[in-house]
Input
Amino acid sequence: MYRGWCWSPTTAIIWVRAMVKHKYIDRICIAAVILAAALTIVLMFGERLGILKASANPGYAARLFDDSLVHTVDIQIEDWRTFIEQAEKEEYVPCTVVIDGERFDNIGLRIKGNNSLRLTEEYGLSRYSLKLEFDQFLDGGNYYGLDKLSLDASFQDNSYLKTYTAYDMMKFMEVPAPLCSYVWVTVNGEEWGLFLAIEEPEESFARRNFGNDYGKLYKPDYRFLNDENFDVALKYIDDSPDSYPGIFKNAKFKTSQADQKRLIESLRILSTGENLETAIDVDEVLRYFVVQVFVMNWDSYLGYTGHNYFLYEEDGILSILPWDYNLAFGTYALGMSSPIEDPNILINYPINTPAEGEVMLNRPLYHNLMKQEEYFGRYHEYFEKFLSEYFETGRFEATLRQTEKLIAPYVQKDPTSFCSFEDHKLAVDTLEEICLLRAQSIRGQLDGEIPATIRGQLEQPEKKLDASHIEIKNLGDFDDLENAKRKQDAALNEVLKVK
Output
């Protein structure tokens, strides 16, 4: 039987001898060298030439995170009642997950959240945000390359769109952001509600954004809110890793002493305010702050808590990455003891001093960059790009309304929603108007028509954009939590009936 041509060792030797004697051997060698050099250039600079890393398009990106449709996720678990009742433990339990009809066994499931978890429990509700970890109980477990995802419950977000919109803004400004898409969640086949699936920043996220040789990733967080938490604020303290527990105890990957020393040195350089580009990815950080300031998210690095961000370090260069936006667009005031609820203050919040002085001085990643005239000017240039290309082209409204249309049928039938469908539609309209007015105010600040500092707005309040008709609470309020209990109890009972 014919088996095709075979490249044997003997054949190879004969071919090499023939090539050595070839009259064009010099030209062949030169061509080989040129080809090798070209391949080297492609490997080194392929992304700049428009050639994406293989890791930039993992399998999960085109599956679960195709955001042109609403996906399905069925969580199959033996004891949902106990899982809900022990929410505060945030412990992983095994379950089976069926994603768009495809089954994955022995997956880690746990409840997630901080303030949202506490309030959901306090109000006697059962709709929690969730985490699914594919390698929690199974070494190497993954969903087409994805190690972990979260299912966001849209807590205090009647629009269901705040987090999705904030990540879309970040992606537009070329800030590495988690992928996300909407999913219809069922539990043991019973309807549970519409959630936002979000790629958790861990190995797969790092590989997708930074390549297979990615650096180190941290999720800085405070131990106690009333502590100084200088490390979470990215302030240089001293050269001891023990002085930075909020960072190093929240490392996503194993870190060495060399890794810790490198990061601390970057913080030291940041503290000096000099040669910042040797320690900071300045352009990425400026683009991040453009969106962060726009969305008025004070449960963040620029807020009192100073957390809810990821810190990425590679070769001594630091970047800040986005996370957690359910309390953005001015609604974090709902969780404050002395809330700012005046829409005229919120919508016009100044882009040059986006926090009070005491907070600002303790946020060197913003403050020390903005003290440099070059970076301050570049920050304004990025704001100009954001306004002119994302808002003034109509892209924002088109994306918002297209997504609203996609999820509307699911919101309408959501058995555990925190609001009515009518309240959802009102929240979407409110979110759109808040963003458009915010863009209009910032345009005025860039053009010098509206003061861009807290002091300037206090001295000239008449120059601020009038936003007094806006009801920020339409995006989600505590009244919604009180009214949701009966509905969520009914949905829980339906799940518990399943044998």
